[in-house]
Design goal:
The complex is a heterodimer. Chain A is α+β, with helices and mostly antiparallel strands. Chain A has helices spanning 2-18, 26-38, 43-54, 57-70, 84-98, 108-112, 115-137, 223-228; strands at residues 146-152, 158-165, 173-178, 188-195, 203-208, 213-217, 231-238, 251-259. Chain A has an 8-stranded antiparallel beta sheet with strand order 5-4-7-8-1-2-3-6. In chain A, a hairpin with a 5-residue loop joins strand 1 (146-152) and strand 2 (158-165). In chain B, helix 6 packs across helix 9 (168-190). Classes of the chains: A alpha+beta, B mainly alpha.
Amino acid sequence: MASIGSEVAWTVKSIERIGIVKYQSEPLRDALAAEYALGTLQGSARRRFERSLKDDPRLRRLVTDWQSRLAPLHALAEPVQPPARVWNAILDRIQLASGRRVSPASRGFWGSLTFWRGAAIVSALAAVVLAVSLTTITPTKQPPQMMVVVMSDQKSTPGMTVSWPMQPKGEPKLRIRVTGHETMTPDQAWELWMVPGGDQKPVSLGLINTDVEQELTVPRQLMPAMNQAWGLAMSVEPRGGSPTGLPTGPVMYKGQCVKL
Amino acid sequence: MASLPAADNDAITELMARCALRDQRAFAELYRQTSAKLYGVAIRILRRQDWAEEVLQESFVNIWNHIADYSTSRSAPMTWMTAIVRNRALDWLRRPNLERGDEDYDLLVEALPDDAPGPEALLGMSRDARALADCLKQLSGNQRQTIMLAYAHGLSHGELASHLKEPLGTVKTWIRRGLDRLRGCMDGKIN
């Protein structure tokens, strides 16, 4: 250990002097990632390190690991309520960037357009955002871990969230949180559907209940399709579920898949 | 409150998914739930309210613009957001001719003797926090103090040395060895 320590010490010193960086030795890479996450790597050494982070996904991973190890130290900072002007400034900046202003007064935007049209616009935009960020900003090949679907009613109010690990270890289970306050009558059933997108028909995933927290097991062979699906929908069906194998009742919640 | 309870983490992940779909109301809720904590982090490092406000603003604009990148970070949502705020704050301190506030590091850790009940009481009881607290206890008092000071206040090696009145080389060694032992200890706990 002593020799690794002195090698690191020596190399850090020479980096500070020379300024050319090729972080090749693994202990050195990890030591620098640690001091970067801690915050003690400062000044020009920090800038150089950040430059090499850009095209070195494995180095980024070392940093993330250290950030996670040190994360509980957040507790050393007491929460302090920021003044309201901070939020106003943030809102100004993101609305300016998006080219339109959505103030609480103009919230009718969401209600006035039909939900389906609105959802299509939003999802097209989101698809672009996701595609751009996944392909250009992050060249890493790591597959995303979780799929999250926030499902909303026709007024875009979220009422239900479904998430699942994209590569489940055991049998595939959807985690479902029902947060809306709709009620189900005894002669009704709530049926969850995978919406593949395009011209393909929805595929039934099974019946759910009104519990806030619940799980639904899906057949393993459905997972590839689930991980590529446009989204999910939940329809109100007669007791026992749809008699036709396709949604027959009104869609209560619907939402698009997001990889997180 | 060390890391958020699992339920809150799930709620924040959901909000982030909605933000990725450009839902500004979800973003407002994300801000409501996390801004006080993140502002606290910025204030600790910058020790000036006006700077901390700027950094918080920059950070949240950044979070909004890059929220889809979160998928590749593989860390808890608060860890990801805190890293953005800390980086912004440290960037801010890098600007030339800055005068930070007085060196009033009111940290509880400074008063910690080697055998104090310290870290776990400070960091809370989540599993990750407990692992870190246990491992921090295995460091020497000097190693622990420098690491916690550096993290909480964003101090450089030089600032730590002058604050602790120790030679620069000594402080660097404490940190380097401390981090090395910390990793060994924590990896042992997880695997």
